[in-house]
Amino acid sequence: MTLLSVVRDVCAVVGVQLPTSVFSGITGNRTMQEMVALANEMAQRIAYDVRDWTKLRTTTTFTGDGATTAFDLPANYKRMLLTSNVWRSTSAISPMNFIADTDDWLNRRARNATEHPYGEWTMYGGKMHIFPTLSAGQSVYFSYLDKNCIDLTAGGRGDVFQSDLDAFTLDERMFKLGMIAQWKAQKGSPYAEDMGSFGDAMAMVAGHDSPSPIIIGRRSISATTKIAYPWPVPS
């Protein structure tokens, strides 16, 4: 569904006149201005705040030149995934060690100290900092969440709607129900039932976004799964 189709459905439910266009004449149309602002907020809220959606997961690689220690994050970078690690091309055994505190990072660099054989990394200033310095040809790679959650009719993806024919990258019914609930909440109308419908739809879509983990079976479990009871399960 395009943005125009979603907005028309929302308008039909909340009692607003159905538009023939969202963006045409928007300068003088307060209702459509509010609809676009709501659509952008709801799209970003769903895309960024709910889970690491598989459609928005992506990866990147930084390649060393023997001198660069800080690399610009990708233009579409939103945040690291909940289970992201940074891996050095010289080892697939263990990821690099993340240093969360910037002051600790600076102190460690002043002392030229590292206790981790696969290197360390941190982020500040919109850059990823790597130690030791990557030699020419060496690289690091990691996964992250793409901030661009809208398919643009002009081509590519973006993080805000730009035309009537743009479309939300994720589930459009969930998006529409979220807009209905939030519109009613903002206008002071009863919205509890609509919020419940939105929550149910979001939970269903989120639950089917990734396969369920295999607890007992012959297949290998994910590397992110932690084994708390390593002995045979009683039958």
Protein model, in words:
The protein is of the alpha+beta class. The chain has 2 domains: 3-52 and 170-207; 56-146, no CATH class. Helix content is 31%, strand content 18%. The chain contains 5 helices and 11 strands. It has helices spanning 3-14, 30-49, 102-110, 172-186, 192-207, and strands at residues 57-63, 70-72, 77-80, 87-88, 97-98, 120-124, 127-131, 139-146, 150-151, 157-158, 167-168. Strands 1, 3, 4 and 8 form a 4-stranded antiparallel beta sheet that branches. A 4-stranded mixed beta sheet has the order 2-7-6-5, covered by helices on one side. A 3-stranded antiparallel beta sheet has the order 10-9-11, with no helix packed on it. Strand 6 (120-124) and strand 7 (127-131) form a beta hairpin. The protein is elongated. The model has no long low-confidence stretch (mean pLDDT 92).
What is this structure's SSE topology?
Layout: H1 3-14, H2 30-49, E1 57-63, E2 70-72, E3 77-80, E4 87-88, E5 97-98, H3 102-110, E6 120-124, E7 127-131, E8 139-146, E9 150-151, E10 157-158, E11 167-168, H4 172-186, H5 192-207
Parallel strand pairs: 5-6
Antiparallel strand pairs: 1-8, 2-7, 3-8, 4-8, 6-7, 9-10, 9-11
